[in-house]
Design goal:
Shape: globular
GO molecular function, one term: amino acid transmembrane transporter activity
Radius of gyration: 18 Å
Low-confidence stretches: 95-104
Distance between the termini: 30 Å
Subcellular location: Cell membrane
Keywords: Cell membrane, Membrane, Transmembrane, Transmembrane helix
InterPro entries: LeuE-type
Transmembrane segments: 41-64, 71-88, 115-136, 143-163, 183-201
Length: 205
């Protein structure tokens, strides 16, 4: 893969990872609820889910969706249902108030599971890979070049959210997050439910 093409891929993956959405909300919630380790775990396993979609893309995900649009519709509905469920959980946590210092409200196992599921259930990620990442894949591309695409998407996504988790879990930031945990949970819940409704009501622009 030429360097210029790879740099374009890096820029697109970085913009996709850094855009606000349910992935950021997930890392924030697990960092808030359990500290640095659950937050980093959520970030790493989210990257594995992203890598899975990247792998499907280099194997021809875009062509499959064009041939079977109903498959894409089912996936988006399932993703919307999961995002809505996470939003309801966040709202319930918000009504419970802030998180007491030292209390562990989440575990690394929960963070790992939700990290993968949020990545796989996020319809915006599917659209991102089909519309953008598939443009970098050509029929004559070597296995090594395809592996570079998958690795680039995973490393950038995981690296960004690991940085977010580490930054949010800093000793000067985490107490502030705990103080406003109930509001953060409520805002997160509303955003997740709003995204789920947006997916159900029509295409994401």
């Amino acid at each position: 893969m030429p360097l210029s093409l790879w740099l374009s891929l890096v820029a697109i993956c970085a913009m996709g990872a850094m855009s606000p959405g349910p992935s950021l909300a997930l890392v924030l919630r697990h960092t808030l609820g359990g500290g640095r380790l659950p937050g980093v775990t959520a970030a790493v396993f989210h990257a594995l889910g992203v890598g899975f979609y990247a792998l499907l893309t280099v194997w021809g995900l875009g062509a499959l969706i064009v041939r079977h649009p109903q498959l894409f519709q089912v996936v988006t509905w399932l993703g919307a249902a999961y995002l809505a469920w996470l939003g309801i959980k966040a709202l319930r946590a918000g009504r419970a108030g802030g998180i007491a210092p030292g209390a562990v409200m989440t575990t690394t196992r929960q963070a790992a599971k939700e990290g993968v599921l949020v990545a796989l259930g996020n319809p915006k990620l599917i659209i991102f890979f089909v519309a953008l990442l598939s443009q970098f894949v050509t029929p004559e591309m070597s296995i090594f070049a395809k592996a570079i695409i998958v690795a680039t998407a995973m490393v950038i996504d995981g690296g960004w959210y690991v940085l977010v988790a580490v930054g949010l879990s800093h000793s000067s930031v985490l107490p502030w997050l705990h103080r406003y945990a109930h509001w953060i949970n409520r805002v997160t819940g509303v955003l997740l439910i709003a995204l789920a409704l947006r997916v159900v009501l029509g295409p994401i622009s």
